[in-house]
Specification:
By secondary structure, the chain is of the alpha+beta class. It has a single domain, classed as Trna Endonuclease, Chain: A, domain 1 (3-Layer(aba) Sandwich). The protein is built from three helices and four strands. A four-stranded mixed sheet has the order 1-2-3-4, with helices on both faces. The radius of gyration is 13 Å and the shape is globular.
């Protein structure tokens, strides 16, 4: 399974981080959802989204799972980078790292 291999291949991420990404990704398989495309670790130039969804409406959403320390400045910069591409960002900040 390609997506499972992607999760296993990124050794810098904690098991917790990988589990959250996989849970979010798998939740997109429910019936009658508006998602037409989904991907783990999708690249957008200098950014790599943890999870990516494209909706039937054409809107794009990335989910960023942040388990380690991050500054507000970095969150704002990443969000702005995605927003410049008309991509919405959902941040999941857990703080176990």
């Amino acid at each position: 399974m390609k997506n499972k291999l992607l999760l296993e291949s990124n050794k810098s991420e904690s098991l917790y981080h990988k589990a959250i990404k996989q849970l979010i990704f798998k939740s997109a398989t429910e019936k009658n959802n508006p998602i037409i495309e989904k991907s783990l670790e999708k690249h957008f130039g200098n950014r790599r989204a943890d999870v990516y969804f494209k909706l039937k409406s054409g809107e794009e959403i990335v989910v960023e799972v942040q388990n380690s320390k991050i500054t507000v400045k970095e969150i704002k910069q990443r969000t702005e980078d995605y927003n410049k591409k008309n991509i919405f960002v959902l941040w999941i900040l857990h703080g176990m790292g």
